[in-house]
Write a structure and sequence with these properties.
The structure holds 2 protein chains of 2 kinds. By secondary structure, chain A is an alpha/beta fold. Chain A contains 19 helices and 20 strands. Chain A has a 6-stranded mixed sheet with strand order 6-7-8-3-9-10, sandwiched between helices. Chain A has a 6-stranded mixed sheet with strand order 16-17-18-13-19-20, sandwiched between helices. A 4-stranded antiparallel sheet of chain A has the order 2-1-4-5. Chain B has a domain at 93-286: MetI-like fold (Orthogonal Bundle), CATH 1.10.3720. Chain B is built from 14 helices and no strands. Chain B has helices spanning 2-29, 34-39, 45-55, 61-73, 87-122, 127-141, 144-158, 183-189, 193-230, 233-240, 245-282, 288-297, 301-329, 331-336. The chains are: A alpha/beta, B mainly alpha.
Chain lengths: 554, 337
């Protein structure tokens, strides 16, 4: 990196005014990006990685301000630049793409017009050629039938397609620097690969520099030249991507790297050294299966206008003749991309949704015929529990942790008397590794990992036989994910439960599950023992899923 | 589009049927005897009974209702006993006055409230924001008859800027040739600047009274919606793309923020219809509100039923318009409607 950097951040400090006084979100950070270089900024939530990029663009919200340091972009001091100057730079010289692409686009404006807005703002197009240039921009991000999609609204496009539009918008004026803030979080693994390949391809082709902000060390190492690791507002390590996996210098980088699920490691390997050895023995699947699903179908009728004389369209089949079993003590992974029907399936097994056809036999009893509305009072109800995807949204914000955990106990009457319930809550808290003194806190006073533990404690409170885990770690940082996954494995061992683990993350499924079912468009594509399916996949689709996982140079 | 419209119109039919039944029953259960009222204080019981038979009030309720519905189907709303005119004629003459007043009030308050709400959201915690809060609180806390009287006192009695609060035009001016029934529109259409000015002078104070009343909800909703939208991801994208402040605020933020405002408009309009009754009393405005109140006091059923039905129809049409406008602004509901 001998060339003069395109972007140089020196000693940057960003402060946020809060009710308890100023808080430094970014402290004395140094980052430099050379022309044509791709730099990854990696860190967990609260590390200040996004705030750093907002400070560069000067789009911090009103509470935030740059408190110290300098930001230099090809000779321009961005900290003292006027708002007008900044506006000319944004979009034309420095662009940004964001997480959650659907929300990043104006929902009531045609995507073509949104691209035109940017082109016209920076005088790249006049009223005559704006449309043609916008279509060309859509073409460049490989959107098929670009002239048709020009008229589409964001809600008519898929998540991956929306991200392409956001990229087209960012690159329309051929900026020199592209900042990508978690561009693929929330996208499917194959879409992630397509989007990242597109971004790296376009930036390389145009000789642009780019900054990739992500929590995924693997993703950053795959696509970046150099990686900056941030922790709690500070840069702890800067190293070439090729060496960071092989020789992480800083303890935090090592911890982060270790916690990242990757091929060839077990759950225990994710934890820092010194964790107790794993209980290895797998519970033997014996006797009749705990859960047997056969010929499960869920159809959604297409909406029909009141006066329409057209015959109703064929209903949409979200789940199409699905059959599988889960043995006692077994954990089965249900894998697939968004829209494959995996969540619909788990919701039907949970009996929150009525199947159109098919049977669900749980513990020898047919529960598929019990209407969802009445299953809440069914004697088998305590035996099936669920852990939800978002640990924050799935807790009542006005209930303490102990109230949340006690809720199923009170509802099913498994434990009676307030002392007995409290004792059971404390026992459960110890079981899931939640400090007992935190039981009287409210969700907003707990960290993400602690909330996840409360959610798990609540699910195992009535001693269920089957726990449905719906992407339980998708919203957690990798180091917390490692702890929670290990906790789940230990609990299964100790309590002899079965898991139905719904996920799109193959690496996580590989570590936690005995058997895996790969789904696509409501059907099973492939199923079998985890090692066999992921080690030597038979179906084309499984191979594509595996190939899309980012492979850092190790 | 036409199909959606028909679909929506069909769904309003049950609501209208309900209004017919309820307005009929309500006027029947209200205390007060129409026959006794019209016979006068000195009437003999025989005279009252005779009037009752003439009006058909001695028949059983279902029969009265059947007759009412049959008349309604022919477009006959009955005859007002106080004015002696058919209710349809009375309403037809008075409805434009009320509608003109309400619309002027609504437009005035929109013109003030939306910019005020936007400014308050853009400069949160500033003087404008506090001013918005004060104006909004004052607007809802003061009863409309009080605001009306206050305005009359200041602008007519003290300053003498406004004409006497005695109806739509002063006694010596003649109304413009009727086209829409709105004096402001009709006088302009006739090219009669003098009548236009006179009508404008008369409608200014009552319009302002209603506007102050409607200001609060619209300004608050605009402010809240703008704050939510300004924090949205797509506004950040627009800023990061270097779009001008005007474009970010108007095209990106305001157009999205207008969706909840449009929804609230329907509700605000119904508040205004209620407030109208009092404002018409204060300003001697010859509208349907004061007409209905007088009829109600006189236990004169037909005008009250006619009024309730007319308001229900108006409100339904308004909601339909709002739904359709929503579809124009928001592409997401177009397919779903």
């Amino acid at each position: 990196m001998t060339a003069i950097p395109l972007l140089a951040i020196r000693d940057l400090t960003v402060e946020f005014a809060t009710r308890r006084g100023p808080v430094q979100a970014v402290r004395r950070v140094d980052v430099s990006v050379a022309k044509g270089e791709t730099v990854g900024i990696v860190g967990e939530s609260g590390s200040g990685k996004s705030v750093t990029s907002y400070a560069v663009m000067r789009i911090l919200d009103r509470a935030g301000r740059i408190a110290g340091g300098e930001v230099d972009f090809s000779g321009i001091d961005l900290r003292s630049a006027s708002e007008r100057q900044m506006r000319d730079l944004r979009g034309r010289e420095i662009s940004m793409i964001f997480q959650n692409p659907r929300a990043a686009l104006n929902p009531i404006r045609k995507v073509g017009h949104q691209i035109e807005d940017v082109l016209r703002q920076h005088a790249e197009a006049g009223s005559g050629d704006a449309k043609a240039k916008a279509i060309a921009a859509l073409d460049q991000v490989k959107i098929a039938r670009a002239s048709e999609r020009y008229h589409a609204y964001p809600f008519e496009l898929s998540g991956g397609m929306c991200q392409r539009v956001v990229i087209a918008l960012a690159l329309a004026c051929r900026p020199q620097l592209l900042i990508a803030d978690e561009p693929t979080t929330g996208l499917d693994v194959t879409t992630q690969k397509a989007v990242m390949d597109l971004v790296t391809g376009l930036t390389r082709e145009r000789g642009m520099a780019s900054v990739l902000i992500t929590h995924d060390l693997g993703l950053a190492a795959t696509y970046c030249d150099r990686i900056v690791v941030m922790e709690q507002g500070r840069v702890v390590e800067t190293a070439p991507a090729s060496t960071i996996f092989r020789a992480p210098a800083h303890a935090y980088t090592r911890k982060l790297m270790q916690a990242t699920p990757r091929p060839g490691v077990s759950l225990r390997d994710l934890l820092p050294e010194g964790a107790p050895a794993a209980p290895t023995a797998h519970a033997e699947a014996a006797g009749a299966p705990l859960l047997a699903v056969s010929g499960l179908v869920k159809e959604y009728p297409k909406a029909k206008a009141l006066l329409s004389r057209k015959p109703a369209e064929a209903p949409f089949r979200a789940v199409d003749a699905l059959s599988f079993t889960v043995a006692r003590g077994e954990s089965v992974g249900l894998v697939g991309e968004s829209g494959c029907g995996k969540s619909t399936t788990s919701t039907m097994v949970m009996r929150l949704l009525d199947p159109t056809e098919g049977s669900i036999v749980f513990a020898g009893e047919e529960i598929g015929r019990v209407p969802a509305a009445r299953f809440a009072r069914h004697p088998l109800r305590p035996k099936i529990q669920m852990v939800f995807q978002d640990p924050t949204d799935s807790l009542n914000p006005r209930w303490t942790a102990s109230r949340a955990i006690a809720d199923p106990l009170k509802r099913f009457g498994t434990v009676r008397g307030s002392d007995a319930i409290r004792a059971r809550c404390e026992e459960l808290a110890r079981l899931v590794g939640l400090p007992v003194e935190l039981l009287d806190r409210f969700p907003h006073q707990l960290s993400g990992g602690q909330k996840a533990r409360v959610g798990i404690a609540r699910a195992i409170a009535p001693s269920p036989d089957l726990v449905i885990l719906d992407e339980p770690t998708a919203a957690l940082d990798v180091s917390v994910q490692a702890l929670v996954l290990n906790l789940l494995a230990d609990l299964k061992q100790a309590l002899g439960m079965s898991y139905l683990f719904v996920s799109h993350d193959l690496q996580v499924v590989r570590m936690l599950c005995d058997r895996v079912i790969v789904m696509r468009s409501g059907r099973i594509v492939e199923e079998g023992p985890t090692e066999a399916v992921l080690g030597a996949p038979q179906a084309e689709y499984t191979r594509a899923l595996l190939a899309a996982i980012p492979r850092p140079p190790v | 589009m036409l199909r959606t419209l028909l679909d929506r119109l069909l769904t309003t039919l049950p609501a209208l049927a309900g209004v017919v039944v309820v307005s009929f029953l309500l006027t029947r259960v209200l205390p007060g005897d129409t026959a006794a009222y019209f016979a006068g204080p000195a009437a003999t019981p025989q005279a009252i009974a005779q009037i009752r038979t003439e009006l058909g009030l001695d028949r059983p309720l279902p029969e009265q209702f059947a007759r009412y519905v049959a008349d309604l189907a022919r477009g006959d709303l009955g005859r007002s006993l106080t004015t002696g005119q058919p209710v349809t004629a009375d309403l037809g003459a008075r409805l434009p006055a009320s509608a003109e007043l309400t619309l002027v009030g609504l437009v005035l308050s929109l013109l003030v409230a939306i910019p005020l709400g936007v400014a308050a959201a853009l400069k949160q915690g500033s003087l404008v924001d506090h001013a918005c809060r004060v104006v909004a609180t004052a607007g809802v806390s003061l009863p409309v008859f009080f605001t009306g009287l206050l305005l009359v006192y200041v602008f007519y009695f003290v300053l003498g800027w406004a004409p006497a609060p005695l109806g739509r035009l002063d006694a010596f001016a003649s109304p413009p040739p009727t086209r829409t029934g709105f004096f402001l529109v009709d006088s302009l259409a006739a090219g009669d600047a003098e009548t236009f000015r006179a009508a404008l002078g008369q409608i200014a104070l009552p319009g302002l009274t209603l506007a102050i009343f409607a200001l609060a909800p619209i300004a608050r909703i605009t402010r809240a919606a703008m704050l939510a939208v300004l924090a949205a991801d797509f506004v950040r994208t627009a800023r990061a793309a270097g779009l001008s402040r005007r474009r970010v605020v108007v095209t990106y933020a305001l157009r999205n923020a207008l969706l909840p405002v449009v929804t609230t408009l329907g509700m605000v309009f119904s508040f205004l219809l209620g407030a109208n009754v009092l404002v018409e009393k204060v300003f001697a405005w010859p509208g349907v509100g004061s007409y209905a109140v007088e009829a109600l006091i006189a236990s004169d059923f037909a005008p009250v039923q006619g009024f309730v039905l007319a308001m229900a129809l108006l409100y339904t049409v308004l909601n339909l318009t709002i739904d359709l406008a929503y579809g124009l602004i928001d592409p997401r509901v177009r397919g779903a409607a």
